[in-house]
Backbone:
């Protein structure tokens, strides 16, 4: 049974994370690991695509809180895309919308980091 | 039916009792059970999902704080459809909780100070109408209550 | 294997105990719980779904036959991950089952004679490795066992 | 919470039933009602489209067994389309494949009843 999987992909300078399933205190290590992995690779522009994230308990929000300081102090950010209603709702309850930028689509979240250096010269 | 001591008196609707190991592996089951019991009590699916989150948080706290992560203890749960109230109790035999010692999160400070703890308790209180802790017979009882009439106007 | 009163001895992994009202409204919960417990015990999702069906059938029979449809009684369930075995027990205080009185379905006759009863028992026996009924202390205990090593070669 | 819904549609002489969700001893009355309704309207050519049927316990199979005699003795049949793997499996366990004809698609199941009288003249 895999209650959670987290895939990771590159989109230029941006790292995309795809948590799929349920983040609770049991599965959160996997999500935390994916965040820490990006950080250890010095990849600080992170988009979490939440389109397949069904559920997130406070443990998952804590994992983001635990990483955000380091991410931002290195000129990066953690931004969220495609939250479903349940997850959006949890964010709202906690006032996380003041803390994290969320976007309706992955493309918008990626674009929010500005044009990639490669893209500018390659046009 | 049964004269079991743990049964409440009166016309309370039949109750679901569950006893499970203090392992986070069971949290998914706790979430599913709560959602289904909330739906059986008449809550809409979105509200039932929030109630499931609150109970997940309460069970997580029992495992992580009352039992300090020990996986070989027991968590007892009771789900009750009490007419106007949906009530879930979690009982453990672990470390005592002093409700006054539990830090209340000021979400605005939280945002500026970027703490990582206290989120679970905050969610529970936002979602439920009441969250209480009591100690009785060397057991900790955490009781979560949601009024049904408030469903439509749920703050969460 | 099934002479244990109710607590098994030794290194059996922690157990899930559930006590629920004898209402068919809870059968969905029974199905979900069983599926999840089977997955936690290591069964693949398709096998876990079949085990959930077998336990649904057993719980349905308790409600419909042992309790004759009365909704105010109690069904106790115990899920155990016993190393090589996944074991589910259902306990009721209703009418006694005489295992010899339970008709065994001959599925070929079934097809030609077009009976409607007996399907549940047949499914339970096809899916599980063992299905036993016993009476002890005025309670009926139905025990369903599935061996883990047989998972891949499950007949069901 | 609706664990089961059963929609009904007409396709010429054939009645299509769409059970969606879970058929168990709790929800089976609804399925039984849909079958009995078709019978009471003298519609004996019935296709049960199982594409959204997630689960069926013996109660549901019993409901079909309870109706099949009357359906067939009136020149009709109950045929099944688009069974998912779980449901197909339960059918196999019980040997129901000897009792009921199943089809991969709804169109095939409808076609199996032969051309509708209207269709033949309308061509
Ligand atoms: N069931 C409990 N038993 C003991 N202490 C608890 C319990 N629930 C909460 N606490 C205390 O309250 C604090 C806040 O809990 P919570 O908001 O869930 O955040 P976190 O668990 O992330 O610390 C915990 O750190 C713990 O000290
Ligand atoms: N838990 C039980 N208690 C009493 N009788 C039972 C029980 N389970 C099965 N039976 C008997 O066995 C018969 C066959 O059960 P089953 O195969 O589930 O078919 P059905 O429930 O449709 O009759 C039942 O009709 C009943 O007489």
Residues:
């Amino acid at each position: 049974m895999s209650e959670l999987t987290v895939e990771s992909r590159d989109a230029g300078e941006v790292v995309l994370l795809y948590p799929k399933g349920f983040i609770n205190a049991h599965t959160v290590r996997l999500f935390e690991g994916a965040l820490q992995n990006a950080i250890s690779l010095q990849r600080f522009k992170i988009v979490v695509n939440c389109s397949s994230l069904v559920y997130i308990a406070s443990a998952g929000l804590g994992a983001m809180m635990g990483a955000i300081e380091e991410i931002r102090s290195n000129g990066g950010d953690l931004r969220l895309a495609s939250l479903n209603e349940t997850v959006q709702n949890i964010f709202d309850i906690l006032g996380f919308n003041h803390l994290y930028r969320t976007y309706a689509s992955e493309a918008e979240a990626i674009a929010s980091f500005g044009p990639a250096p490669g893209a500018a010269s390659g046009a | 039916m049964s004269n079991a001591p743990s049964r409440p008196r009166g016309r309370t609707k039949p109750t679901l009792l569950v006893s499970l190991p203090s392992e986070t592996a069971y949290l998914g089951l706790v979430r599913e059970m709560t959602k289904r019991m909330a739906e059986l009590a008449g809550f809409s699916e979105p509200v039932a999902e929030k109630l499931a989150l609150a109970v997940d948080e309460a069970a997580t706290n029992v495992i992580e704080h009352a039992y300090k992560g020990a996986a070989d203890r027991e968590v007892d749960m009771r789900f009750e459809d009490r007419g106007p109230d949906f009530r879930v109790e979690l009982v453990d035999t672990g470390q005592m909780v002093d409700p006054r010692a539990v830090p209340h999160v000021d979400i605005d400070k939280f945002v500026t100070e970027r703490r990582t703890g206290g989120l679970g308790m905050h969610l529970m209180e936002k979602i439920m109408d009441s969250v209480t802790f009591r100690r009785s017979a060397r057991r900790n009882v955490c009781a979560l209550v949601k009024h049904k009439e408030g469903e439509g106007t749920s703050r969460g």
Remarks:
- The first strand of chain D starts at residue 4 and ends at 11.
- The mean pLDDT of chain D is 92.
